[in-house]
Every structure is written in C-alpha cells, then in structure tokens.
C-alpha cells in the first residue's frame, strides 16, 4: 500500500500541474515601460500657463508649462495643481502644501495640512491635521488673516463668498469678503455632514447627516433646521435634494422595504413598470417620497409625482407620462408632456408625443424647445404658443443663450443664430460645400434637469467668444474656431487629420489649449494665444516606440453597392519580402478611429488592443459594417468578405492562410455568425456575444430595463419587425442554428454578471460546439460583466487572447492551457 505522505505529495503535484496548465502564458509578451498618457488639465486666466498630467504606470507627473517660452516645471506624485492667480500655484504632497511663484520659482511649504481650497483674491483656506482652520493671503507674502481651532467640517460656497463650518457641535458662518463670523442657532446636535448644495444667492445651504436627515442652514436668519422625512417607519437609505424655482427645495427620500424574495413572481402583459422587476426579485421594494420644502416659511408639501423634469416657478413644474406610449418595442422612448399646478393639483397636457426625451428648457423657465420631424420647436409657457424653426434642413443640436430672445442651432453644415422674436435665421459659420459635419460648441454651460432621462439644458454666453469644434465625418478631419462677440469667425486650426481632444479655454481672453494626436503621432499640447498657434510640449514617449507605425485606409464596396472603409495597421518591423498573419476586428463603424494614438497594454476590458497586436507582428484590420434589410449577420458577412478581398488585393504581404477574426458584444455576435458561413479565418475570438436572435428577442434585458426585442428590432440589429413578420430573417441571422458548420477554432468568453448579453448565450454556443466536436474553449469570468472591469481579469483575457492567436496563426504549440482543451 502507498505511504499516506507520498500519496498526499502525488495529489499535490497533480493539482499543481493542473493549475499551471490552466494559466495564461505571458513569456513572449514584452511592453516598454516608457509608454505614458498625456492629459491637458488646466489653463490660467491669461492663457500663459498650462497644467498637464502624464501618467506612466504608477508614476504621475504634473507639469506647468509657459505657453510663451515653452519652459516647464514638473512635480511627481503630487496632488492636483491649482492656480491661485496668474503667477502662483498651489498643490499638496502628502501633508505638505506647496505654494510656488511661477515667475521666480520661489516656493513656500506649509506642514501638517489636511486639505486646502483656493479662495478668490489670492486667498487659500487650509485645514490642518490638528483641525485648525486658516485663511491665508498670498498677494505678496504668505499672511495669516483668519484662524479658528477645532474645526470638524467646512463648506465653502461655489463663488467662494460664504463658508459654513462645524466647530464641535455648533454651526458658524464666515463671510469670506469681510471675514465676519456669525454663530448659527439650532436645537439639536450635529454629526458628520455631507452633500452640500447652495442656492444661487449663497445664503441658504442644504446638507445631510449620516442618517440621511436633511439640514437646512439659513444664513440670512442665522439658523439651521432639521427637515423631518415623510415616513418614519420605513428604512431610509438615501436622500437627495435640489433648489428649485425661487424659494423651494425638492427633497427625494428613498426608502427600502425589505421583504423575502417572492415565492412566485407574476409578470403581466399589461405591466408598464417592468423596470422594477430587477429589485422585486431580490425582495427589495423601493419607495420614493418627494417633499417640496419652502425655505421662507419652512413648510413642506408632499409631491406624489416621480417624473418631474423641472420647476417653472414655485407652484408649477413640467412632468411627463412615461407609460402613455410605452410598449417596450423601441430602443428610444416616447412620452407625453404635462404642466402640473401644485396648488390646484391639476395637469395640463402640453405635448402628446415627445420622442426620445428630445426636450430642453430655458434658464428663465419661460420656454422649452423640443425636436420633432427633424425640426426644433419653441413652446412659450406664458402664452402656450409654439414657434417652429423652418427653412433649415438636418437640424441637430440646440443651445439657449444669455440673450432670452436668441438661440443657437447646428445642422450638418453650419452654426445658426435664431431670433425668437423676429424669427430671423442667421448663419454664423461659412462651411458652404460640406454637408456631413458635426458641430459642437465647447464652452457652453450645462444645467441638469431633475430627471436624468432628459439631457442637461445647455446655455451659451453671447458676451464671450464661442469655441467651436467641427468634425468632417466623411474625411475624418477636425477644425477649431473662435466666434467673437461681433460674430466674426477666426480659425484656430483648420481641417487637420489629427484628432483634437481636451480643449480648454481661459475665462478672460481668446486663449485656448488642446491636445492633438494621430495613430503615428503621440500627444502634443497646443496653445492658441494672442491669435498665434504653437506647440508647447510633446509627450515624453520616445519616437522610436511608434514612428514605425504605418496605416492604410481601405475603401471597399459590398455586393449591395454600399461604399465603406476599413483601417489596416501594419505590423512592427514590417518587410515587403515577408508575409504576416492578419487579425480582423469587428464593431459597426470603426474608420473614425484612424487618428487615435493607441498605447499597447495588457489591461484591456475586451481583450483587444490593436497596438499590442501590431507589436506582436500582426496586421490589424478594422473594417466598417452596417445593417441592411437582410439582417445584421448576413450584411456583415457581405461587408467582411468584400473588405478581406480588397485588402488582400492591395497588400500582398498579408498571409491569407493565417487570418484571425475577433469582436466583443455586437462585434462578437458578428464573429459568431461569420464563422458559421465561411471558413476563411483560421482562428476566432468572441466575447459577451449573442448566439441567437429568435428566443432572445422575447427576453427581458435587465441592463437596458426593456424587452430585448427593442434591441433586436430597433437598435443595433435593426430587423425592424418581430419574428412573426420576418421568420426567415431571424433564423438566417442566428449563428447557433448554423453552429454545426463552424470549422474555425474559437475562443469564447463572457462575464457571469453581464446583464446586457447574458452569459447563457456564450454557454449555449459552447454547448453546440461541444455537441458537434468543434475546437473551442470558453472562459467565464465569474465576478465580471459585459466588458471586464477587474484589472486582473482584463490582463488574463488579453494574454489568453494573444496565446490563442499565436497558437493557431504562429504555430506556437507550447501553450499548455490551450493544448489541455484542444487535444
């Protein structure tokens, strides 16, 4: 009989070998540590000084550059850097505060600092480790002008005019202009407070306690009060609040009534609140109670409505009915719009049918605009009259302005000014010949609505220069312009093929900073100052890491005559005399990514990184696909076949015997389908992907909170009708019904927590492939979702994807975890 200790050692050895065989192999993957990411963080009021941040693994380097001299000063692993004024900055490193003069680089260090905040007029507020609060004047020297000890918490108003602080269990206010301190009177003790919200005049402050109790601080009357919630018996788990109209605060109490999971969960076909199913299955019954609190008389009024968009005045608000047109068949939503009077408790219907929440409300709440039939309409809430903006095709974005009688609209060629009184429409830009533009005003202000389904209301200040970014979609070029107060357009940079990102502007002058990049050009920091454009600095990445990069735009035509594009990236160390394997990546339209500077890394949420693949010696091809009446899978097959034929015709160094294909989500579905129809690919990778459309269309999508047929009929899959009306198309575009035809080894992966495309799709396809004895391995990340969020999982998936491609396309057969599942 075998010795017991020897038996344990044998079992241990078997387990160790089994574990090592299942691990991804990373031996041949080498990434330079010199790759980094440059970000444009801040610009001074004069535009002279620019703050950037460069991240390299765990090292964060923040720099201040002079836009004129191009000189810079840098700091490693500090906190964020803030401008005190135009020549001084402040930053914190551990518990030390550094104040630096940018003219002479003289610095002052203050020890034992817990936190700090920049106040107007060269002042800094500091809270020390010993909870002493200091206010410093940095105009010439560093002078202490105010001090208080034993400060537990403080709240500074957005305009830096008022501060409320908690000393012990007593509230005090400090006027930051004249440094006058006042004690606030209240009748209860306070604990830790959070979520400060100030009114516009900064004389009222709302905060809440750790028990979700709401505290109202009145700086005019020097008092504070606790606002009692509506339902004392339920478990209060969260409270939110917001100043609305002039004197009111809307408070939302969220209660949780925890019950046992139901023995039976009933689904009715006339239920229009299926969104709640996700919680009721867990026994979580959430109850929302609204209160309207008047800050003058401290009276509360219960508000039953949970679909409030915005208050018009103290007594009226806009609301909507989400159930009126709901049938869960559309990816977008149609609602009815009402005006509710609180005193009369009446609803007045304003719009019967509002599509996709396309509504924006003016800041003075006298008007709202909505989009219908590709035109914007202005509704006057005072006289209930509607004005339609006619004589302008392809209307896109809408902006309110600081002039109550003027609004801005973009279409697919220009920016326009519309006078709501005279109804006159004026063109502000001069893009005459181009009709495929996307125009964005960058320096607008956003004001959110009470309901997040509705986009924030955007306002443009006509008394300041307007920064305009224009994207030519057909040619993938970008431009930046300044429109001055006299409506004169001035170019900053025109029709560049470089990608423009992170545009910042100064508050005082027409000074702009931004980053440019391209697939073979690392980040450059640009400055537009005094009507001159210059490059201030370039990323620290050595040119040798990317200057070999080469790209070709492949134009191809499908059998249906659709003209499309694809991006081909060349492998590193490319030689005209050699052949290289090629990876095709799919996900709808991709050609707009051709000027994106990509950094090779192992942490990728879908396992795909084109820069990493080219460094590993692959061509990478990203062709566009679209959806025709034939369905998503059939159309994509036509696209990919035409694209592959064209790219092989153009580039003879592509090894047609070693082609791979990969995709995630909708792209993964396309991969699933294509390999059931053709065997031109030697290897495939598909993640978080649908394998079937018929049964799936009748399911419920817990991620989107709607029936899945909205996705299949109306969104990405665009079948435009239910299965009963298009049975052939549904069947023809469902990969799993053709899985017996698959000849391509495929690596499948999914996150078990995916609520968008449930992991059972991957399991079902795996089951079919196993039944038909196909070469396949499936990876299930048990605690991750649709795209992998966990860094360890991201790295594991990326390495396994590289292993899988190398095994089949480079004949690298010494990968144990693949041999274990394939042989």
Automatic annotation (TrEMBL):
Protein name as it appears in the record: Prolyl oligopeptidase family protein
Instruction: Give the UniProt record's GO annotations in the biological process aspect.
Output: proteolysis
Tell me the keywords, alphabetical order: Signal
In this chain the Peptidase S9 prolyl oligopeptidase catalytic domain maps to 642-810
What InterPro entries does the entry give? AB_hydrolase_fold (IPR029058), Peptidase_S9_cat (IPR001375), Serine_Prot_S9B/DPPIV (IPR050278)
UniProt-listed Gene3D superfamilies:
alpha/beta hydrolase
Leader sequence residues? 1-24
Q: Which Pfam families match?
A: Peptidase_S9
Name a GO molecular-function annotation: serine-type peptidase activity
The source's domain of life comes to: Bacteria
